[in-house]
Amino acid sequence: MGNSVIKINNLSKIYKEGVNEVHALENIDLTINQGEFTAIVGPSGSGKTTLLNMIGGLDTPSSGNIIVNQTNLSSLSYNELINFRRDNVGFVFQAYNLIPVLTALENVSFIMDLQNIPSKISRKRAIELLESVGLGDRINSRPSKLSGGQQQRVAVARALASKPKFILADEPTANLDSKSAENLLDIMEQLNRKENITFIFSTHDQRVMNKARRIIKLEDGRVV
Predict the structure, then answer these.
(1) What's the whole-model pTM score?
(2) CA angle, corner 51, sides to 46 and 56, nearest 5?
(3) Cα separations (Å) of 222 from 12, 37, 73?
């Protein structure tokens, strides 16, 4: 484990529901270091996904700060946040979120195209990433021709494509059968240990918790 990647100071998020206020997060203080394999756990409504969205710049805090590699996300404009997400964060979602008309190779290459990386380089890296998640023989398959576990492995390869500072995985095993979930977790653990890639999970899955080397428990929007 190396230096801190993420520092969260006194973070709160309040949503308005009519005249009512919902306190999704309250006064969160956290530090995530380079190379962590961390699970954020807690019951439904505890604030797990909200916290992940804040860290990834998908939502903005009501108060407090999130600092990623010395950049305070609150100081970024809308367009700067888009560029921040593109260049710093890899996302793995519960629903895969692959582009159905693109092949596995094209799905992984897509974010590198947005970064204006030459196609020869992006294609080579995409093939290497798909090979690293065991899909070297499925690079030309579209999502509809892949199993759920294979689609989620494409999503992991895509998340790594931009060489992000960290990976945010929101319930990545929720739609997978037991064997596919174990295979996916083994791949992510290997990437973490070999490449020192930081993984932060939001999960209810005991299998993820068993693999995690740090567990952060949320309850009613607070770290407990």
Answers:
(1) 0.90
(2) 155
(3) 9, 20, 21
